[in-house]
């Protein structure tokens, strides 16, 4: 009897040693492969579900904040984690078409400091700006648009870039480099594109919130300036207006200039870093254009871009007109250092609104002050007329009566005594008139140091025969102890007197600089010294203001052959009060 097992009828028990089903090798291999595929696909599904959960988490993180800077930082951090990249960055495109802001993760502070300037959006980074579409590269250094890395920059090969859009405008670009898997996959690209879409919405919401907060800050600033101008409690109202505007605009430096005469713009207040450099490089010409046209100007030129030399350190500048109705009173200029976010059109519009409010308030304050002066002047005239018609006339009548008494008595002693009484009455009448008509009707309008120096220059201009080019820098509105302000004005007068004594003089340049506690007055003219200065016209006359307080005076000649006079003084520090 056969000892085989039939798989069809099951009539026999299998042998004790076990057995295998007689399947063919090929069907078995196909089944194993199918099972492996199913397992692999199940793993892919699980991995995809995990990445989708990461994407949902990234969406929640990005949309969890309304601070624009916090949102930008969340985007680069979550993007880096989502696709397992070593480096991630987000570049914000400015109105000049280059990167205005660069937020990054993955590099330590020491490396960032060694690299120096952040990128402006050229090479591979600029490729997304000119062609806003996803870019995925296995080796970014092999791309034709690659321009290489700056010194100390870490090596990067794999690259993934995706534009971030807000409605129909590209806000910036999301950059990823150094995939942990060697290269970025198509799935990485799809996830990053999805994250960029959410990022655009979150950035838009954050910007709208930021603009709302900015609007509130500017309205608060306008209200503060108007209230303080009308209260009249600030000794230097222009400095107050400039300070409030600079703080609200988050600017690094600022100037306020007023139109003193048709075609002339004079700086009245300065604040912050690089003020002198801004005035020389761009402010005066741009401010002059704004003062003439009444149209605000926004300059967005980051260092190293558009031909601007990086060492200038000047970044974005906005200049707006100070308006009082249709009248252009002057200009208000704000600036930021290179490397900071540039001013935007919204920033300029806010500053325009503030300047309009401040200009109207300044004009109303001026009109109010003029009216007060007119009222005081009218009272002054009324009082003077009353005194002249009553008191002075009565005194004059007494004087005439005394003169008539002298005709009745020719005794010398009597005549001398009556003449002395008449002299006293005449002196009294003159003193009353002098006191009445010499009353200061505007005690609150004390001229500033800058005004006094300009007045001294105006006094000497006819003798010179040409205008003096004058430059002010520093805190000229700073209170000067003792007679130091008088000394400065006297030095200017004596220096210009010396210039008037030179021959063939056609040009003079005066610079007044207060840097910290150091005062410098420098005068340069192209005249010829007629000879050694005499005591009558020399600014170095012993006891004169130039040598007063042991100041330093230097006579030198410039490389062009001009005569230079430099006077310096140190502002003494006030001793602490006994109660401090």
What are the main properties of this structure?
five-stranded antiparallel beta sheet, alpha+beta, 15 strands, 11 helices, 580 residues, disordered N terminus
Average per-residue pLDDT, rounded, comes to: 76
* Widest sheet: strand ordering: 2-1-5-4-3
SSE string, helix = H, strand = E? HHEEHHEEEHHEEHEEEHHHEHEEEE
CA gyration radius, whole angstroms: 41 Å
The N- to C-terminal Cα distance equals: 125 Å
- Report the count of strand segments: 15
Beta percentage is: 15-25%
Q: How many helices?
A: 11
Helicity range? 40-55%
* Content-based structural category: alpha+beta
The largest sheet is:
5 strands, antiparallel
Global geometry? elongated
Low-confidence spans: pLDDT under 50, at least 5 residues? Answer: 1-12, 277-283, 302-311, 532-550
Task: Describe the secondary structure blueprint for this structure.
Elements: H1 25-62, H2 68-83, E1 85-93, E2 99-105, H3 109-115, H4 124-130, E3 135-137, E4 159-166, E5 169-179, H5 186-231, H6 237-249, E6 253-261, E7 264-272, H7 275-293, E8 297-300, E9 314-324, E10 327-337, H8 345-408, H9 412-437, H10 449-464, E11 469-474, H11 484-501, E12 508-515, E13 518-525, E14 552-557, E15 563-570
Parallel strand pairs: 11-12
Antiparallel strand pairs: 1-2, 1-5, 3-4, 4-5, 6-7, 6-10, 8-9, 9-10, 12-13, 13-15, 14-15
Helix pairs in contact: 1-2, 1-5, 2-5, 5-6, 5-8, 8-9, 10-11
Protein model, in words:
- The strands form three sheets. The chain has a five-stranded antiparallel beta sheet with strand order 2-1-5-4-3, sandwiched between helices. It has a five-stranded antiparallel beta sheet with strand order 7-6-10-9-8, sandwiched between helices. Strands 11-12-13-15-14 form a five-stranded mixed beta sheet, with helices on one face.
- α2 (68-83) packs antiparallel against α5 and α5 (186-231) runs parallel beside α8.
- With 580 residues, the protein is of the alpha+beta class.
- The chain starts with 24 loop residues before the first helix and ends in a 10-residue tail after the last strand.
- The protein is elongated.
- It has helices at 25-62, 68-83, 109-115, 124-130, 186-231, 237-249, 275-293, 345-408, 412-437, 449-464, 484-501, and strands spanning 85-93, 99-105, 135-137, 159-166, 169-179, 253-261, 264-272, 297-300, 314-324, 327-337, 469-474, 508-515, 518-525, 552-557, 563-570.
């Amino acid at each position: 009897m056969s000892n085989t097992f039939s798989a069809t009828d099951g009539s026999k028990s299998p042998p004790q040693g076990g057995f295998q089903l007689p399947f063919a090798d090929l069907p078995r291999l196909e089944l194993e492969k199918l099972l492996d595929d199913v397992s692999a696909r199940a793993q892919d599904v699980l991995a995809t579900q995990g990445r989708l959960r990461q994407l949902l988490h990234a969406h929640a993180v990005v949309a969890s904040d309304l601070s624009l800077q916090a949102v930008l930082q969340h985007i680069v951090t979550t993007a880096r984690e989502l696709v397992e990249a070593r480096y991630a960055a987000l570049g914000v495109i400015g109105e000049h078409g280059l990167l205005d802001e660069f937020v990054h993760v993955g590099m330590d502070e020491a490396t960032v400091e060694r690299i120096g300037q952040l990128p402006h959006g050229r090479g591979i980074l600029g490729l997304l700006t000119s062609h806003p579409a996803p870019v995925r590269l296995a080796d970014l250094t092999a791309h034709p648009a690659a321009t290489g890395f700056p010194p100390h920059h870490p090596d990067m090969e794999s690259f993934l870039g995706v534009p971030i859009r807000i409605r129909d405008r590209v806000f910036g670009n999301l950059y990823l480099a150094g995939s942990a898997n060697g290269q970025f996959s198509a799935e990485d690209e799809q996830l990053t594109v999805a994250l960029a879409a959410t990022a655009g919405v979150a950035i838009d919401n954050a910007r709208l919130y930021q603009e709302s907060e900015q609007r509130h800050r500017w309205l608060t600033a306008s209200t503060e300036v108007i209230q303080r101008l009308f209260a009249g409690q600030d000794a230097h109202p222009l400095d107050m207006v400039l300070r409030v505007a600079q703080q609200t605009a988050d600017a690094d430096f600022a100037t306020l200039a007023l139109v003193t005469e048709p075609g002339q713009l004079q700086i009245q207040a300065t604040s912050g870093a690089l003020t002198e450099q801004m005035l020389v490089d761009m402010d005066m010409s741009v401010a002059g254009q704004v003062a003439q046209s009444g149209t605000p100007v926004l300059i967005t030129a980051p260092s190293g871009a558009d031909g601007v030399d990086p060492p200038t350190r000047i970044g974005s500048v906005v200049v707006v007109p100070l308006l009082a109705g249709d009248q252009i009173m002057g200009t208000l200029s704000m600036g930021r250092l290179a490397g900071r976010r540039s001013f935007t059109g919204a920033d300029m519009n806010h500053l325009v609104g503030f300047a309009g409010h401040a200009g109207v308030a300044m004009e109303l304050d001026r009109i109010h002050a003029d009216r007060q002066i007119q009222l005081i002047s009218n009272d002054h005239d009324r009082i003077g007329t009353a005194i002249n018609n009553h008191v002075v006339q009565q005194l004059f009548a007494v004087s005439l009566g005394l003169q008539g008494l002298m005709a009745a008595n020719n005794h010398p002693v009597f005549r001398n005594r009556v003449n002395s009484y008449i002299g006293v009455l005449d002196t009294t009448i003159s003193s009353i008139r002098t006191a009445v008509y010499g009353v200061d009707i505007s005690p609150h309008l004390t001229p500033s140091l800058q005004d006094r120096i300009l007045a001294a220059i105006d006094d000497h201009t006819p003798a010179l025969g040409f205008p003096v080019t004058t430059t002010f820098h520093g805190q000229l509105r700073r209170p000067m102890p003792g007679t130091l302000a008088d000394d400065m004005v006297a030095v200017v007068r004596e220096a210009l007197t010396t210039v008037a004594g030179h021959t063939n003089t056609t040009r003079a340049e005066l610079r007044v600089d207060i840097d910290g506690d150091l005062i410098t007055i420098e005068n340069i003219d192209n005249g010829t010294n007629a000879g050694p200065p005499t005591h009558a016209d020399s600014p170095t006359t012993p006891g004169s203001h130039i040598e007063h307080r042991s100041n330093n005076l230097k006579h030198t000649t410039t490389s062009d052959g001009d005569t230079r006079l430099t006077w310096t003084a140190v502002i003494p520090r006030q001793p602490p009060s006994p109660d401090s």
